[in-house]
Amino acid sequence: MQKETIIILASSRSHGDTAKVVQQLQQIIHCDMVDLNDYDISYYDYEHANKDDDFLPLMKRIINDYQNVIFATPVYWYTMSGILKVFFDRISDLLTIEKDLGRQLRGKGFGAISCCMNGSIDQEFWHPFVKTAGYLGMRYLGNIHVDSLENLPLLEDFRNKIIT
Ligand SMILES: Cc1cc2nc3c(=O)[nH]c(=O)nc-3n(C[C@H](O)[C@H](O)[C@H](O)COP(=O)(O)O)c2cc1C
Fold first, then answer.
1. Residue 116 beta carbon below 6 angstroms from any ligand 1 atom
2. CATH of domain 3-154
3. Which stretches are annotated as coiled coil (predicted)?
């Protein structure tokens, strides 16, 4: 049976600020989480020589088991973390060597959380998230920026978006 939601943690710190936000959200949503630091996922390769790394098995599990995928990233140089960008690049594998898997993303929920303690972002930050969800035929559930661990009401709002 498919579970509801998985959060993909994409920070260079497994126990840093973004991880703390994810922990708080997990208490509200009661969902699973994967930390990309636990996986060996290499840069996109046009020759697909890296097809046996951890990306495809992880993606298969996410697609089979979950209805919503929430990406959680710190703000690094005004944009998503490098770890998350590499992960997004690898989604191109699902448009080439694993098309059937890629098609199964259609209709799933896609959300995003950015984290930067005491820092703000521009609306443009969300552009690659919105466009990626659209390209993949996923439902954009929304996004939140967290700049303080006191932002629990914001997380509650986000939970409501995911549930509807
Ligand atoms: C490589 C790097 C780049 C960063 N770039 C920005 C930035 O562009 N704007 C900003 O406000 N904070 C920036 N920060 C600060 C982080 O966004 C902030 O400390 C965040 O809470 C760290 O989350 P983490 O513990 O999950 O890495 C940067 C930090 C690092 C390590």
1. yes
2. 3.40.50.360
3. none
